Amino acid sequence: MRRGDEFAAAIRRGNRAGRPTLVAHLQVREDVAEPPLVGFVVSRAVGGAVVRNRVKRRLRHLMRDRLHRLPRGSLLVVRANPPAASARSEHLAAELDVALDRLLRRRGPDHQARTDGRV
Fold first, then answer.
1. Which GO terms describe its molecular function (predicted)?
2. Residues in the chain where the model's pLDDT stays below 70
């Protein structure tokens, strides 16, 4: 995800699941059949440029293995909190899984079957 309006739509209109190291916002656009889009927000509060880029790379790597869980047409924004800078990858992965589970569970049981990215 690269466009500001997509980030804004996911944050303003999507569901939110917060964890100590990250916050995830998910908006599912039912009328869009495109693959899911994921964006990352890592502010200066997390650390300097090197630390921020490292956190983004780690989150991007973790999301690659979880992208299939998102429904088609969805917008996901993952915002890193300051503790993400010192968190181990296993801890970040666990926090990301909990946040995604919460967001996908909120969609309801009738949508659970379509979280594989297919229509």
1. 3'-tRNA processing endoribonuclease activity; ribonuclease P activity; tRNA binding
2. 108-119
